[in-house]
Amino acid sequence: MEYFLELFLSGLTRGSIYALIALGYTMVYGIIELINFAHGEIYMIGAFVGLTVAGILTSLGFPAASIMVMASMAAVVYAAAYGYTLEKIAYRPLRGAPRLSPLISAIGMSIFLQNYVMLSQTSDFLSFPSLTPEFDFLENYSSMIGSSDFLIIVVAGFVMVALNLFIKFTRMGKAMRATAQNRKMAMLVGINVDQVISATFVIGSSLAAVGGVLIASHIGQINFFIGFIAGIKAFTAAVLGGIGSIPGAMLGGLILGWTESFCTGYVSSDYEDVFAFALLVLILIFRPSGLLGKAPIQKV
Amino acid sequence: MLKLNNVNTFYGNIQALRNINIEVEQGEIITLIGANGAGKTTTLMTISGVVPPRSGEVLYNGKPIQKLNPDKIVKMGISQVPEGRLIFPDLTITENLDMGAFLRDDKDGVKEDMDHVFELFPILWERRKQAGGNLSGGEQQMLAISRALMARPKLLLLDEPSLGLAPLIIRQIFEIIKKINKESGTTVFLVEQNANLALKTAHRGYVMENGEIILSDSSENLLANEEIKKAYLGL
Amino acid sequence: MSNERRTVLEVKGVCKDFGGLRALDDVDLDVKEGEIVALIGPNGAGKTTFFNCITGIYSPTFGDVNIDPLGGGFQRINGLKTNKITELGMARTFQNIRLFPSMSVIENVMIGCHCRTKATFLGAIFRDPRTKREERETILKSYELLKELGLDQFSDELACNLPYGAQRRLEIARALATDPFLLLLDEPAAGMNPQETLELEDLIVAIKEKHNISVLLIEHDMKMVMSLSDRLFVLEYGREIAHGTPQEVSENPAVIKAYLGEDLDA
Amino acid sequence: MEGLKKSILAALWFMFLTLPIMGVFVNTIDKSITWRLDRVLYVGVAAFFLSFAWRYMMNRKEVGKKQEEESTEEQVTAYSKLMTNPKFYYPLIIAIMAFALLFPKLFSMYQVNIMISALIYVVLGLGLNIVVGLAGLLDLGYVAFYAVGAYSYALMNLYWGVSFWIALPVGALLGALCGILLGFPVLRLRGDYLAIVTLGFGEIIRLVLENWGSFTHGPSGIANIPRPDFFGLASGLSNSIYFMYYMMLVMVLFTIFIVNRLKNSRIGRAWQALREDEIACQAMGIDKMKTKLLAFSLGATWAGLVGVVFAAKTSFVNPASFTFLESAIILSIVVLGGMGSILGVILGALVLILLPEYLRAFSEYRMLVFGATMVLVMVFRPQGLIRDVRKRIDISAVRKALGGAHE
Amino acid sequence: SGEKKEESPAKKETAEKAAPAAETIILGVPGAQSGDLASYGLPTVEAAKLVVKAVNDAGGINGAQVVISTQDDQCKPEFATNAAFKLVSDKATVVLGHICSGATKAAMPIYKESNIVCMSPSATNPALTQSGDYPNFFRTIASDDAQAALASKFAMEKLGLKNIAVIHDKGDYGKGFAEFAKKYIEESGSSKVALFEGVTPGAVDYSAVVQKIKASGADAVIFGGYHPEASKIVSQMRKKKMTIPFISDDGVKAKTFIDVAGAAAEGVYATGPRDITGNPMYKVALDQYKASNEGEPGAFFFEAYSAAQALLKAIEVAGSTDYDKIVNALRTHEVDTPVGKIKFDAKGDAIGVGFSMYQVKNGEYAEVK
Ligand SMILES: Nc1ncnc2c1ncn2[C@@H]1O[C@H](COP(=O)(O)OP(=O)(O)OP(=O)(O)O)[C@@H](O)[C@H]1O
Ligand SMILES: Nc1ncnc2c1ncn2[C@@H]1O[C@H](COP(=O)(O)OP(=O)(O)OP(=O)(O)O)[C@@H](O)[C@H]1O
Ligand SMILES: [Mg+2]
Ligand SMILES: [Mg+2]
């Protein structure tokens, strides 16, 4: 039972991470139907900015907790700026182009950004300081859950709820939903579509950056390639939950995390990814629009 | 109130509008009729800023608006019921209507208008929780009209509002058009295939052919015009 | 007047539920050989849903859909796939035009011929004489159909560049290419002006005669319906409230109340 | 003036963006911080000038779009004339063929070798083009079928000593079989859901190859796979390379021939229609599943086929060759070249495969330039390098032919 | 046509490099220089540059200047063959590479045909030297089985462990090492393998596998793979208060590992080339590196440095670029390198390069005597 619980918690951590990154995929996909392959790279850049800022602040002697906050904030700002620029350079000129062209542009951007960071920083792994404070109340459970796991789960949960409320109840959220469904009509009810798309990229990227800093601090290292694998997994999670759906991204992330962790625990980690993808295939066969996704309405 | 000066609009190299001059006075109902592909929809899209003109001016209350983004134009009080209805398919009827009032801040007013719209089209009330995409063609058309009304426009552009509607409803819609024109002073720019009814509703009419305005006159005169009768009224 | 004619489509007690909404409720309808039957009713009455149910896009919750294309007895087609039903000889057009927008006009019609031709991919690769001949015949047949509907001057144009009215006619041509015994038209005159509607009326009659088919028609243009159809069925809220000749139906008080309104000159 | 302001803003913006990545290097272990602000300054200067170029190109693209549309008619006719009039295209084809035939004589073995790679990718691109370009099914795991082909030769050779020439059809067949097996359950999915499932499938195949060590030799791969022999003609490294070059040339021609015929056939039309509107397609009597499955498995067949060639060419296979990035590159070939266009796909393959090779001069900047090129090509030529031109149907010719046949 | 235009720049490049081949010696350096494995290939490039610079500054080899031709292969077999053909076409004299065993295996036949000697600083797959298929292959690093033998023996005999979890990263290198370790443990009869599992490199979290190790009741972990995974696993083990020994391979015996794993690295064992820090050449290499770079040298830097030295020295000794003479020189003549005084045996493994066991103590690897 304890073993089960341990695996459950480890899956929860993993799943929360996937979910955080998956949100960006899901939002962007929802609004411009683009699989933004460069999203993983934004997450990676967020982590790098976090590292840089944390490094500078550490050398200036700031306390750990405040470093965590400030590094995250800087990461968020920069990831948002990168996301915004990315959209403007690589996707906006492709509005109205054939559906797959932005996808290729995204793949190109992903390759570019990876190499940009590799060349600017280093190809090697860099140590990322552990910025999470030790929570005393977790002392007794340390074999099951660490402070950073706890922080990841809490932040992911909080972000998810906040985002859901944002989409449901704010004007921008409303505009996003409208733009996602019919861009032309969104214009005709007075929505500035360009602004909405930019905002989507900015928000999605910021969330990825939060994920980036949390994870980097959790596992203690980063390099230029971390975005790729996390990105693919997160994307899988987004699809699993029903791409375009925000609770779906959360659910998909968690299910993916648990699948991997239980597969590792009870079968073998050799095949954890095989299980994860097989699960994806299975779920999509029975629910072709993902767990919480809705089939697009096509009135004949 | 609205004035199109020598407007030329293109789709790529296809010229859809040629030197269009149209004038709409405050409080008027005018109609634009013409065969399929004449350029009526393009005219409305040009006014709304979705397909900006390559040359010429669109003046709204004397201000040029041809370079503004659609959202700015909507903000100035110009709403459109577009061709093809363009319902937000995953949103419910209520949410679709709410989107119509996107730029409005007065919650109570919106609520009031929504009740009013439901009164006009009771079937929408019955289906209010249904996704817009699942509605029948006619229901969608009613929804599109209602959504435009939710913005409380000063100028209402209607693109073939009677399309796909049952005879009873068509008459009702034209009554509504007259009513909002009279009661709230909304100016109406009506594009319609059902020329007969359109001319009976409107004060003045323009006739369009191949992207050009070939005739403009008062409705009575147009209705009496033999050419028009033959070409558009099917008599 | 047509009692001896054979029934080609017979629908009995069809119901269709969408969640809690019963869009069709126990609808009976039949079409006889060579007839033009119209289906009318207020918006949201379930007319399009009815089409979808008999063409396999939805499967009816209850009820039977039977067809008898050749006079050899009825065959039940509930739940068959759409393409199977088309192969059996029912072809339709769509209320919201669904052409293949970036294919040329003639290619659109050639797609209609698909289910009446046989070339496999091996044939396509080796281009044996039979495949070649079939391909040529397909082209010719499609071209003839275009001519019939007055679209031949557009044959190389992309379908999306056609004026609205022409697109509607193209849908009819494409449907005819499947060699149907029954043609289902969903609001063919929508978006046409009265003059164009008149021309369409003549066209439908001509097609019916030439191809020796029956037509089932949904339309809100009463003038057209009245002058074109042999019989009418009227739906309201998914239920059939009347059927009969145009004359009978137009005098039916229930129909006037639900659908037509007092005067008829709309 | 306006432009100047914009460029200055762009320069500042990019300096801001690159500051923490290029401008600082922190080492959290020995707590050292290295500032490299000069690099940020260079970025600013570069951004300043490039933003002028960018705007200029953007304007040209806008204007170009208008002009292109204005001249499409002529261009298309000129192009289609070129492609349909034997007087024009025969000499062109002969010239290209002559060049292709003489290629090994003109260039070094390295050039021939990478040209073989390029030709392999031409075939892969054309194969994927059936799936993506013609049938509109987004397949992100195409490399799986390629792996199936490569491993089928490697393993059959390893365990049973099966020769290349037997493995070639078997690999193709196994590819097709996998295509059908995967296609059955997943082709019901729409659009991008299909994409992710195929991506998953690609990963599954790779992971199985990696983990099933006892059978596939796992990550260490299978070495010493023999190159094809052809009656002793292709012995020795250089001969076998030349032989493979010509073999690939034949295979490319064969593929072009088949894809071209499929494209302009009843099946090809059905694929295109399916791509545009599935519901209408079914209402026209087209069996959606069967038609899609055909496209999917045909694409897989080609991947299986060249997979065998690949194994023979590298003489070594391991799972590292079959990652998602590979699928992405093949897809890029199709889209960047111009979806559906055969010529475009060929050009796309040559560009994307030869480019990184010729970019070796940039050494570590190579992939950076490669990624940027992909983005720029898409931004400035969203339709791909060569736009697909559909064959016009000439009715009078058909009528004549048919009339002749009938009489 | 378009093809022709693309040919020209490359041709020019070839011509430029090929022309002075008579007087210059071309040292090919192929390996992963971009992509996810770049961090294993780039230090080799750096090492080659330093050695070549030193040699050229000292007047070259027998008067001939040495130039480097780096070729990226991303550790992928097909790029490796392309790189190999490129080097053959460019008339490379000797080759320092490739980095990954798979890529090396793919490329070797091409060098073999062209009589080019290759020396890898990092390809540890046993078959490369032991199969006899690659007579022109040499390496300055010992093969996986030697390492695995050392690691498993150490665990069983020195530490007296009975129940060992063997974990690997599913990669060519790591899995090879782990499989040998498993084999030796099982053959010993006294100890047993508690768990044999691969982890996915680059995964965001390894706590599940750590839990599994814990649940298996293992009294030690032998890990085959590289430092990023090792540091993640070991950190999570320590976070979960698992203090059992962690024994790993040369991929982990890097300064970066200690930097990244921090406190968790304390006490970790790793096999590595026999302690070389005392070698005079080691200091020289390190100083050269520090003079032009930030931080510490990366993976396989010293092996690469040694290989470059050995190759160039062999040419010098041979007095020619003839294949047989170079091979002969490599086998007979000892060279002083950072990894020690080495020459090569008939199979291509370096004699004098062996492994010792190291343990992290106070943030440094110290040899376990
Ligand atoms: N997006 C487009 N791209 C290219 N051409 C277009 C586009 N939209 C419309 N056109 C062309 O512009 C002309 C005018 O079209 P428009 O839709 O304005 O006509 P309309 O008068 O509204 O016709 P209808 O009665 O069919 O609605 C037509 O010839 C049409 O083919
Ligand atoms: N897929 C669906 N899910 C839920 N409700 C649906 C669906 N399709 C249709 N409906 C509902 O069923 C009713 C009948 O729709 P249908 O499209 O058949 O109407 P119709 O008679 O064709 O009307 P119109 O003349 O306006 O086209 C409508 O109220 C519609 O909202
Ligand atoms: Mg219109
Ligand atoms: Mg309908």
From TrEMBL, chain A:
Family indicated by similarity: Belongs to the binding-protein-dependent transport system permease family. LivHM subfamily.
Compartments reported by the entry: Cell membrane
Annotated GO MF terms: L-isoleucine transmembrane transporter activity; L-leucine transmembrane transporter activity; L-phenylalanine transmembrane transporter activity; L-valine transmembrane transporter activity
UniProt membrane topology term: Multi-pass membrane protein
Pfam families named in the record: BPD_transp_2 (PF02653)
Segments traversing the membrane: 15-35, 42-61, 67-85, 97-117, 150-167, 188-216, 274-293
Keywords: Amino-acid transport, Cell inner membrane, Cell membrane, Membrane, Transmembrane, Transmembrane helix, Transport
Gene Ontology CC: plasma membrane
Protein name: Leucine/isoleucine/valine transporter subunit membrane component of ABC superfamily
Taxonomic superkingdom: Bacteria
CDD domains registered for this protein in UniProt: TM_PBP1_LivH_like (cd06582)
UniProt KW Membrane keyword: yes
Annotated coiled-coil segments of the chain: none
InterPro entries recorded: ABC_transp_permease, BCAA_transport_permease
One of the GO biological process terms: L-alanine transport
Lineage, top ranks: Bacteria, Pseudomonadati, Thermodesulfobacteriota, Desulfovibrionia, Desulfovibrionales
Keyword Transmembrane helix appears in the UniProt entry: yes
UniProtKB/TrEMBL annotation, chain B:
UniProt xrefs under InterPro entries: AAA+_ATPase, ABC_branched_ATPase_LivF/BraG, ABC_transporter-like_ATP-bd, ABC_transporter-like_CS, BCAA_Transport_ATP-bd_LivF, P-loop_NTPase
Keyword Iron tagged: no
Recorded superkingdom: Bacteria
Biological process annotations from GO: L-amino acid transport
Domain ABC transporter per the UniProt entry, residue ranges: 2-235
Recorded GO MF terms: ATP binding; ATP hydrolysis activity; branched-chain amino acid transmembrane transporter activity
A Pfam family annotated for this UniProt entry: ABC_tran
SUPFAM superfamilies: P-loop containing nucleoside triphosphate hydrolases
Record flagged with keyword Transport: yes
Keywords annotated in UniProt: Amino-acid transport, ATP-binding, Nucleotide-binding, Transport
Listed transmembrane segments: none
SMART domains: AAA
Similarity comment: family membership: Belongs to the ABC transporter superfamily.
Name of the protein this chain belongs to: Leucine/isoleucine/valine transporter subunit ATP-binding component of ABC superfamily
UniProt source species: Maridesulfovibrio hydrothermalis AM13 = DSM 14728
Automatic annotation (TrEMBL), chain C:
GO cellular component annotations of the record: plasma membrane
GO function terms (MF aspect): ATP binding; ATP hydrolysis activity; L-isoleucine transmembrane transporter activity; L-phenylalanine transmembrane transporter activity; L-valine transmembrane transporter activity
InterPro entries: AAA+_ATPase, ABC_AA/LPS_Transport, ABC_transporter-like_ATP-bd, BCA_ABC_TP_C, P-loop_NTPase
Claim: Transport is one of the keywords in the record: yes
Transmembrane regions: none
Keywords (A to Z) from UniProt: ATP-binding, Nucleotide-binding, Transport
Domain ABC transporter: 9-262
Listed name of the protein: Leucine/isoleucine/valine transporter subunit ATP-binding component of ABC superfamily
Organism of this sequence: Maridesulfovibrio hydrothermalis AM13 = DSM 14728
Gene it is expressed from: livG
Automatic annotation (TrEMBL), chain D:
Transmembrane segments annotated in the record for this chain: 6-28, 40-57, 88-107, 119-138, 158-184, 191-209, 241-259, 293-316, 328-355, 367-386
Cellular component GO terms held in the UniProt record: plasma membrane
Pfam families referenced in this protein's UniProt entry, alphabetically: BPD_transp_2
Keywords per UniProt: Cell membrane, Membrane, Transmembrane, Transmembrane helix
MF terms (GO), sorted A to Z: branched-chain amino acid transmembrane transporter activity
Keyword Transmembrane: yes
Stored InterPro entries: ABC_transp_permease, LivM-like
Protein name: Leucine/isoleucine/valine transporter subunit membrane component of ABC superfamily
Species for this entry: Maridesulfovibrio hydrothermalis AM13 = DSM 14728
